[in-house]
Q: What sequence folds into this?
């Protein structure tokens, strides 16, 4: 890491900021800290971090508002770190542009993994036409998926779903988002379609469909393509 | 039932109109009958003789006495005497009587007609009164019986409205008082009368003064309803607002008041029962608070002490890596314990405050199970977990978070009570409208006598390991019930506890959706 990746932490709790500073610095990141939303917005503009860690319970404004303001111009990953753990809050943050969501208390190992995924994914955004995940390869432009070099028979809906998740590897996609992207705006409430197709896909691509490693369920929120 | 009621009602009504207040119509009817009968007698007087006519008229008066009140009978008797004298006794068309025998006859005729008529009328009225009394006793008995087998304000009101309608044919509305001894500003459900804001104001006035008011009373007489206070033994329980279709009869008043006092008494008992219940709940929550405080303060201190001690040692002493690692691991375990406690407390407080609203959606049972198992990865490591999910299980319509937490807590519970290395089994299938979840462990099970306490807050089995608050299972029960499900605990024959959950759910067969794919 020649040019250390800059990460901005927006959180009002000193202890959390300190913990993150120690942990992330030790892992080679360069840290900037902001204790308020206003300060956070200013710093984000001036230092242009590769990733922002945002707390939702800020003293001066609601974190979701800061998230929306940031998303007005900032297109790099934002990971939300919050004590709010209801499905509603999580979905709201993700739908408003957060790349990932971790609830406090969190494991630092988990956070580091999510940061790595988010940054890597961001760099891969102008993505390769062929994605590889172990024995699974997905040829986006030719609509072909292979497992152990053998073509997997997928319907076009199955392929769209798989491609969408794979392109967003490591990122939680909400039910609504997936339904809108794959089935269309009129289907955002039809979660049953999603369940059926995810179950089918798992049977076709997972080593053990009962213990999925690729198509990971995020409790009541959505799905994430694992690595 | 209903026809009987209407019979009683018609009886009550007839009594008041025919026996005591003989109205003008009855006089006219009696007059007409007497005149017609006299005309008939006049046409046949030559055949039967004028003396026989007197018997015929006497007979007529007796018959009339059965159907009419004292007044009309008095009229009939007098009229018959005059008619007989004037038209039948010679000389005809004159009140003058020639024969002294006929004078005697006339006097006797008049006296007998009078006595006979009045006595008959009195006997009949007494008999009718007795019947009415009996019917009223029956009505009161019916009311008391209905009231005694029902409880809860709504049910009681339903019974009251039904009985008043049955025995009085009246529409009523009931407004009860609240805890602050003020009249509620809403009408009890099941009331058969609709009130305006204005009516409720009048009811409030009457409630404050504890007196009846409105139509047919001494105050507020322009109002279209009558307002009766429901006076219990110790307090005024509320108001009954009645729409009388006619002036209430004085003779009915006692009966009505007996009815009212039964009703007031019942509402008072309901009120007192409510108060007792509230006091009980208050003392229960006090007890709960104390238990909570004791249990939680212990549960909080232990991990905090561990963290404090271990971190202190790590900062101040230079120990070899091996020992440092052990201390780090202790800190880690303590935080997991703390975190679990906080989660349990938050869930418990959500349950207690009734803020749990399930958000059901379509889910794959496998996903719910996987999430729960994933979250207990470390805890389940030392055990052999056998998961059996019905093949081709349909999609279920449940709250993901709540159901996952149910599984999480039950599996965690199993790990806490089973010997290391033993079996934990999870079985899930759909049966007859319910998702059936069964969790079985290899612990010692519950003592039979404690089986129905296991879901109580702070219940902890005798062999519980240190740690844990006794909240996990009561949260499970709360989350199951929030989704309208049922849970029971059993002991397995070969030892071990078994939890059986039934969650009602709609289902969707996944196969039916596959066909829709292109």
A:
């Amino acid at each position: 890491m020649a040019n250390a990746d800059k990460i901005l932490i927006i959180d009002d709790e000193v202890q959390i900021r300190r913990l993150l500073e120690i942990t992330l610095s030790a892992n080679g990141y360069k840290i900037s800290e902001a204790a308020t939303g206003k300060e956070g917005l200013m710093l984000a503009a001036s230092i242009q971090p590769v990733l922002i860690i945002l707390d939702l319970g800020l003293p001066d404004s609601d974190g979701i508002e800061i998230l929306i303001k940031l998303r007005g111009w900032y297109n790099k990953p934002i990971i939300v770190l919050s004590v709010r753990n209801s499905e509603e809050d999580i979905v709201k943050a993700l739908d408003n542009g957060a790349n990932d969501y971790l609830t406090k208390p969190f494991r630092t190992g988990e956070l580091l993994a999510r940061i790595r995924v988010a940054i890597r994914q961001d760099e891969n955004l102008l993505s390769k036409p062929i994605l590889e995940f172990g024995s699974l390869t997905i040829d986006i432009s030719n609509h072909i998926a292979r497992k152990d070099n053998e073509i997997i028979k997928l319907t076009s809906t199955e392929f769209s779903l798989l491609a969408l998740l794979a392109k967003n590897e490591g990122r939680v996609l909400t039910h609504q988002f997936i339904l809108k992207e794959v089935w269309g705006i009129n289907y955002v409430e039809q979660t049953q379609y999603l369940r059926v197709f995810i179950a089918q896909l798992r049977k076709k691509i997972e080593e053990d469909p009962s213990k999925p490693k690729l198509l990971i369920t995020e409790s009541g929120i959505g799905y994430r393509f694992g690595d | 039932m209903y026809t009987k009621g209407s019979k009683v009602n018609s009886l009550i009504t007839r009594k008041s109109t025919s026996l005591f207040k003989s109205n003008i119509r009855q006089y006219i009817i009696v007059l007409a009958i007497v005149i017609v009968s006299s005309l008939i007698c006049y046409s046949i007087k030559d055949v039967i003789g004028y003396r026989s006519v007197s018997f015929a008229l006497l007979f007529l008066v007796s018959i009339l006495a059965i159907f009419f009140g004292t007044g009309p009978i008095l009229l009939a008797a007098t009229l018959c005497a005059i008619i007989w004298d004037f038209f039948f006794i010679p000389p005809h068309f004159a009140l003058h009587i020639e024969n002294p025998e006929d004078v005697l006859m006339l006097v006797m005729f008049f006296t007998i007609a009078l006595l006979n008529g009045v006595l008959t009328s009195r006997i009949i009225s007494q008999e009718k009164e007795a019947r009415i009394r009996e019917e009223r006793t029956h009505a009161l008995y019916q009311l008391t019986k209905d009231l005694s087998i029902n409880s809860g304000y709504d049910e009681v009101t339903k019974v009251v409205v039904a009985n008043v309608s049955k025995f009085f044919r009246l529409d009523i509305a009931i407004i009860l008082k609240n805890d602050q001894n003020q009249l509620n500003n809403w009408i009890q459900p099941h009331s058969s009368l609709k009130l305006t804001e204005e009516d409720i104001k009048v009811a409030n006035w009457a409630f404050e003064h504890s007196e009846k008011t409105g139509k047919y009373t001494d105050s507020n007489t322009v109002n279209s309803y009558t307002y009766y206070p429901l006076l219990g033994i110790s307090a005024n329980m509320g108001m009954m607002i009645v729409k009388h279709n006619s002036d209430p009869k004085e003779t009915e008043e006692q009966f009505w008041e007996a009815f009212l006092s039964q009703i007031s008494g019942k509402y008072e008992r309901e009120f007192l029962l409510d108060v007792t219940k509230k006091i009980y709940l208050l003392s229960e929550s006090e007890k709960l608070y104390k238990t909570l405080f004791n249990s939680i303060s212990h549960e909080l201190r232990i991990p905090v002490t561990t963290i404090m001690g271990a971190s202190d040692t790590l900062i101040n002493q230079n120990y070899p890596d091996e020992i440092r690692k052990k201390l780090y691991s202790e800190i880690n375990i303590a935080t997991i314990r703390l975190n679990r406690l906080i989660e349990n407390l938050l869930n418990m407080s959500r349950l207690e405050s009734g803020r749990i609203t399930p958000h059901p959606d379509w889910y794959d049972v496998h996903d719910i199970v996987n999430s729960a198992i994933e979250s207990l990865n470390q805890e389940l490591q030392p055990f052999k977990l056998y998961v059996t999910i019905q093949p081709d299980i349909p999609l279920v319509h449940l709250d993901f978070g709540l159901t996952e937490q149910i599984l999480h807590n039950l599996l965690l519970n199993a790990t806490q009570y089973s010997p290391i290395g033993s079996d934990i089994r999870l079985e899930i299938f759909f049966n007859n409208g319910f998702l059936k979840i069964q969790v079985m462990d290899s612990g010692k099970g519950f003592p039979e006598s404690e089986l129905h306490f296991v879901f109580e807050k702070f219940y902890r089995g005798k062999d519980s390991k240190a740690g844990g608050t006794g909240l996990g299972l009561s949260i499970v029960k709360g989350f199951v019930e929030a989704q309208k499900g049922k849970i029971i605990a059993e002991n397995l024959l070969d030892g071990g506890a078994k939890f059986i959950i039934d969650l009602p759910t709609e289902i969707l067969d996944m196969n039916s959706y596959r066909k829709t794919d292109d």
